[in-house]
Design brief:
Number of strands: 22
Strand order of the largest sheet: 1-2-5-4-3-6
Radius of gyration: 46 Å
Distance between the termini: 100 Å
Largest sheet: 6 strands, antiparallel, barrel
CATH class of the largest domain: Mainly Beta
CATH architecture of the largest domain: Sandwich
CATH topology of the largest domain: Immunoglobulin-like
Low-confidence stretches: 208-217, 289-293
Structural class: mainly beta
Strand content: 35-45%
């Protein structure tokens, strides 16, 4: 085997630095490697290469001495023999596998569907590694891993039991992209099933899964009204009075508002009704003692809409309107 001739070029070295810059044939294409030596003929000095960073740069095993420093110096790079390289790398490999690791691996008996792992310094063992688990380990990302274990977006896993907890202020969030009515989750137990999902007009309901079209146990509608097992759903008050809403659709509004002798007064309901059909309104006036003795008066109700009704207080003997404080009610449907 012919001896590889030296690589000739120029080199720049800085005192106290391990870095060097080469000018000439590319260090990479010339296959210069760690351990090769830089000869400076003019200074009769030899330096050893630690790394080759690029075609023109590298580092030394030791910082450059002051005597070797200089710019554009003629230099020769002498290749280390292949035998020396092999011996050095073999020694390095043996050192890396020291501490019993190589012996621990050699002591194992390989078999189909087995993997190996270290149980400590210098000790190793085998474990089962099925084709299924190899497929999971081969997943390139989290989505692929979920698909590999049957929890992908297209899967429908079934669990015998599960406990879901969240420290987030939002709690557990379950979503479904379908907008169809009754698209939902179903929770099952030996006692029966519970359906949870959304119905028409943006409502959300929890009810018996076997009777989806009956009244819900709990329903939150798009207008913020809640239904709980056919009991009182919603109640409130504002400047127009008070109202309550029941699960069967009944709405009752009340208010105290004075009638005026100058003309009919309009009462705007505190909550709108869904229809004027079967809407019933009434009231009585409030005065000290028994006003019927001196001023027999009736409450008269006129034009009504789903949001308001007009009224007046009329004396039965003269037909004139009276200014009296009166209490009113309206009963109808909110859905």
């Amino acid at each position: 085997m012919a001896i590889q001739p030296d690589l000739v070029g120029t080199i720049t070295l800085t005192s106290g630095s391990a870095n060097f810059t080469w000018s000439g044939t590319s260090l990479v294409s010339a296959n210069i490697q760690p351990g090769d030596q830089i000869l400076l003929p003019a200074k009769a000095m030899v330096l050893t290469i630690a790394t080759v960073a690029s075609a023109t740069t590298g580092t030394l095993t030791d910082n450059c001495p002051a005597a070797a420093a200089g710019s554009g110096q003629t230099a020769r790079i002498r290749y280390q023999s292949d035998l020396s390289r092999v011996a050095a790398q073999t020694r390095q490999l043996i050192d890396m596998l020291g501490g019993g690791s190589l012996s621990a691996l050699a002591a194992l008996t390989g078999a189909a569907n087995k993997g190996l792992h270290f149980t400590g310094a210098g000790t190793a063992a085998t474990h089962d590694l099925t084709s299924f688990m190899r497929g999971v380990l081969a997943a390139v990302n989290a989505a692929a891993a979920r698909t590999a274990i049957g929890l992908g977006t297209g899967d429908s896993p079934t669990f015998a039991a599960a406990t879901l907890e969240s420290a987030s202020a939002n709690g557990l969030i379950v979503s479904r992209t379908s907008s169809a009515q009754n698209s939902a989750m179903e929770f099952r137990s030996t006692a029966g099933s519970v359906f949870a999902g959304h119905g028409a007009a943006g409502s959300f309901a929890v009810k018996d899964a076997l009777t989806l079209h009956t009244a819900a146990w709990l329903e939150a509608k798009s207008d913020g009204i809640y239904q709980l097992d056919r009991k009182l759903l919603d109640a409130g008050s504002n400047s127009n009075g008070n109202y309550i809403r029941l699960a069967d659709g009944t709405q009752i509004c009340t208010n105290t508002l004075a009638a005026q002798s100058s003309g009919a007064v309009t009462w705007t309901f505190p909550a709108a009704f869904s229809t004027t059909a079967n809407l019933l309104a009434g009231g009585f006036y409030v005065a000290a003692g028994d006003p019927h003795v001196t001023n027999p008066t009736l409450m008269k109700y006129g034009a009504q809409t789903t949001t308001s009704i007009s009224f007046s207080a009329v004396r039965t003997d003269t037909g004139s309107m009276q200014t009296v404080n009166a209490r009113h009610f309206a009963i109808g449907r909110w859905y």
